[in-house]
Amino acid sequence: MTRTVLVTGVARHIGARVASVLASDPGISRVIGVDTVPPPTPARDGGPAPGGVPLGRTEFVRVDLRSPDIAQVIAAADIDTVVHVDLMSAPRALMKEHNVIGTMQLLGACQRSPLIRRVVVRSTTEVYGSSARDPAVFTEDAEPPETPSHGFAKDAVEVEGYVRGFARRRPDVTVTTLRFADFMGPGVDSPLTRYFGRPVLPTVLGFDPRLQFVHVDDGVEVLRRVTMEDRPGTFNVAGDGVLLLSQCVRRAGRPTMPLPSPAFGVLGELAGRVGLADFSPEQIRLMCHGRAVDTTRLADELGWKPKFTTAAAFDDFLRSLGRDADGGPLAALIGRIEEEFGR
Amino acid sequence: MSHDESYATVVPIDAAARGRAGSAPPGDDRLIELLDFVRRRLAGEYEIDEFGFDHELTDKVLLELLRPLYRHWFRVETLGLDNVPAEGGALVVANHSGTVPVDALMLQVAMHDEAHRPVRLLGADLVYELPVLGHLSRKTGHTLACREDADRLLRKGELVGVFPEGFKGVGKPFRDRYKLQRFGRGGFVASAIRAGVPIIPCAIVGAEEIYPKIGELRTLARALGLPYLPVTPLFPWLGPLGLIPLPSKWMIEFGEPVRTDECDPDAADDPATVFNFTDHVREIIQQRLDDLRLRRGPAFPPLF
Q1: Which of A113, A215, A314, B268 stands the most exposed, by the fewest C-beta atoms within 10 Å?
Q2: Alpha-carbon span B169 to B166, nearest angstrom
Q3: Would the CB atoms of A341 and B45 count as touching at under 8 Å?
């Protein structure tokens, strides 16, 4: 059976990587990549441009998901598989319409198409929110005590709602929802990666949240697998283990600036206004209470686990910033003293 | 230095560099171990479990700080340690008292030092809303008292501890000492039944006298969002000095396990079964408390 796959959000890193890996799969006849802006073009004389991922034989169509044009693309290209990775977390003003209306249009188009067999949607573990009353580890069926009411996380909750509605109306279509932990690794640009890239890291005084990451390579591999195989359902995707924020900043060897939580919000807003960082209310909550998810279901279903643990994904991200994960000058110094003593 | 050790220089350099070649004098070994510990802590190179339990920090630092209090201040004695299984899931159910939950800390030291198992306590959500307390609680192995976490820990074969009285127990007035309060909805029993693990009744005597609560500041407590703000003979009159717990004599007894594996896991959803178990466990603990209190004698021997 020939397969024609539509990938959304190919102008961004994850979308481009997924399109690229699908394009190199001989089992897929065509890969159509869509986005509102053209993907950054790889340099002419071979090798990807900075930030650019070679898209191979992916055919790019410039279309806004919020417009009904997407239905024409799906019909014209005889698309049978849709991989929807295009969720954006910034800028906030555009985001909601893009995420929610875009998904509605896309699913509406899928519903009308008789050829669609499989829909894969990228979601986020942010749908579980983050609060003091959370269970330590969320399984896919867990009902969070407080569902997110702001921003990206709320969008993701709404997107998942529309996806469930679609799955009910089209029981003949295999629908897979992947709830990804925060991506880490080379090329990833997210509020959290921007945060860890700073010279001084603000933290919430008296809180040390548990964080979980998934390496972008593993994320792409999971998306590839569920695109190629029938794996209906909702799955958490995260690297094994958890890291405390304190462990992360120590690994990064960066100084922290603990702020009481109200100050964190105000400062975050100020920083956001000058374009430094965006601390949404969700992120501040994450910085207090953290979140961890259970990934047993994914491992059982796919018979596969992410190659990178949470810690390994974070260390690889640090390396991509050109930093050692040696824990900063003091730890390195003690390491040297130890060696001296050992001799 | 002995004669053998003078040959230390012929140890291959890479083995020596690993620091534990046994070539260095014992003092150096310990120093290297300490340096290594400090370096790994500074570099974030240690593991915590998914609940946030930092095994190393708990064993090497936090329990060390509590031990003097356990050994010398409260002179804790333990009884019935045979009733704590050496491995596998089990649920320790204990009475809660003392105005400030010091009993939870002492139970943790007792479990670690005498039963050689880490206890994973289930705490109120207030603990996790407060700064410092929340993450310290996670780092020492404890988590939120909710069905998901209790089930998950028991399934993993952990030794879980609960105080079903909650704030009603820990914050009760001094005149009600050693009177067990209501045991909530018996959620802990349901978790034990689902996991098929034994319930180990535990009586803690001594905590009631550390901060005798003779009154409370209701308005201030409400303003601060706290369940209560105690008045004791020393607090708030003596200021920070009033925070020093009175050195009462403590005893902790573990009773015979109550088996739950004989009933169907589905019985966890049957309120009658759950309430029966809850009452049964509560009676055992009350009885153990009364006996143990007699056995202990005066709270502040040899005075009164």
Answers
A1: A113
A2: 6
A3: no
A39 CB-contact burial (10 Å; exposed 0-12 / middle 13-18 / buried 19+): buried
CB–CB of A341 and B21 under 8 A?
Answer: no
Contact between chains at B35 and A206 (C-beta distance less than 8 A):
no
- The whole-angstrom separation of Cα A247 and Cα B21 is 29
Which residue in B285, B289, B250, B276 sits closest to B92, CA to CA? B285
Kindly report the nearest CA distance between residue B3 and chain A, in angstroms.
19
Return the SS3 of B143: strand
E strand or H helix at B252, and its extent? strand B251-254
Closest CA to B35 of B13, B19, B14: B19
The residues, ordered by sequence, that sit 6+ positions from A76 with a Cβ below 8 Å of its Cβ are none
Beta carbons of A180 and A237 less than 8 angstroms apart: yes
Provide, as residue numbers in chain B, all residues whose Cβ is less than 8 Å from the Cβ of A261: 131
Q: Shortest CB distance from B131 goes to which of A134, A207, A241? A: A207
pLDDT of residue A78: 92
3-state secondary structure of A103: helix
Residue type, B65: L
- A251–B44: do the CB atoms touch at under 8 Å? yes
| Rounded-to-integer distance, Cα B290 and Cα B178, Å | 8
**What is the DSSP secondary structure assignment for residue A184, as one 8-state letter?**
E
Q: Smallest CA–CA separation between B182 and chain A, in Å?
A: 22
pLDDT of residue B3: 46
B-contacting residues in A 126-155 (Cβ below 8 Å): 132-137, 139, 142
Q: Closest approach of chain B CAs to the CA of A314, in angstroms?
A: 12
SS3 of A221-274: the string is HHHHHHHHCCCCEEEEECCCCCEEHHHHHHHHCCCEEEECHHHHHHHHHHHHHC
Please name the amino acid found at residue B33: E
Gap between the Cα atoms of B132 and A313, Å rounded: 28
**Helices (H) and strands (E) in chain A — how many of each?**
13, 13
Q: Do B42 and A328 touch (CB under 8 A)?
A: yes
